[in-house]
Design brief:
By secondary structure, the protein is of the alpha/beta class. It is built from eight helices and eleven strands. The strands form two sheets. The chain has a six-stranded parallel sheet, with helices on both faces. It has a five-stranded mixed sheet with strand order 7-8-6-9-10.
């Protein structure tokens, strides 16, 4: 565990009681040059965040349901601060505005955040000269898969996405949508032989370029995304499995280190890889 230091980045975890929030508290506590300075959530209020995270020692830091109070105490110390937002698409804009008002940059990982919200945040951060990183994914493995898929798309005319999740969720997933969007922006038309089929078993077409996604819900399977490419006589596949939320923590720590230097909004952790 890192000892508190004035030079450390003070990190506020907003959504600290969630599974990803608890993992973030542990990761930040272990990382060099930063420390947890606040835990915000509407659940488990008053509980010590260290104990909630299953740490060996209490952090002597209760979960508080008041972001403004936490930000105010940090701003008085004149330390560099970052708010990590794991909350909800409907609250992100106001959360970032609050953080900015107290001179703190933000890392936002809120799946299915609306493009209109990102656009509004970008304009706000530009005007305020404050940094914000909006990350559709914090998984470095997922980003590497997306980059590899872009490279492969120049060499194959057929591509389909198969994803699995252990529990029902909104499909297609943000990962599948992101991959399809990346490939659709390249001007390629895929799966020309059956691009217009309306057979439901062929999966959902994302966008207008013929990219299909097939979603599975099977308890016991990891969260998985596979992109299949094919050409005459061969199949090329890219696969990424997530078995634990801890896989997002290296990306989160990188995001925290990078966002403190920003004076505007950046969309996508891949900009820093």
């Amino acid at each position: 565990m890192q000892q508190p230091s004035q030079s450390n980045i003070k990190v506020v975890i907003n959504g600290a009681a969630k599974e990803i929030g608890r993992a973030a508290v542990v990761a930040v506590t272990k990382a060099r040059g930063m420390e947890v300075a606040g835990a915000v959530d509407s659940h488990l209020v008053g509980e010590d965040i260290g104990m909630v995270c299953g740490m060996e020692e209490a952090l002597e830091m209760p979960i508080i349901n008041d972001l403004t109070m936490v930000l105010g105490s940090i701003s008085q110390s004149k330390a560099t601060g970052v708010v990590v937002d794991f909350t909800d698409p409907s609250t992100v804009y106001e959360n970032v505005k609050q953080a900015t008002a107290f001179g703190m940059n933000s890392v936002v990982y809120v799946p299915r955040i609306k493009l209109d919200t990102v656009t509004a945040l970008s304009a706000f951060c530009e005007k305020a000269s404050m940094g914000c990183l909006v990350a559709p994914t914090l998984s470095i493995g997922s980003i590497l898969l997306q980059q590899a898929a872009i490279s492969a798309s120049f060499h194959y005319n057929n591509v389909e996405i198969v994803e699995s999740r252990p529990t029902p969720t909104d499909f297609p997933s943000p990962d599948a949508i992101q991959i399809a969007n990346n490939l659709s922006n390249l001007g390629q038309i895929y799966n020309r032989e059956d691009i217009s089929t309306d057979i439901l078993a062929r999966g959902q077409v994302l966008g207008e370029d013929g990219i299909r996604v097939h979603s599975l819900v099977l308890p016991g399977l990891p969260s998985s995304t596979t992109v299949y490419f094919s050409g005459p006589g061969e199949v090329y596949s890219l696969k990424h499995d997530i078995t634990d939320v801890r896989c997002l923590m290296p990306g989160l720590i990188l995001a925290i280190r990078k966002v403190v230097r920003l004076k505007n909004l950046v969309y996508g952790l891949e900009k820093f890889l």
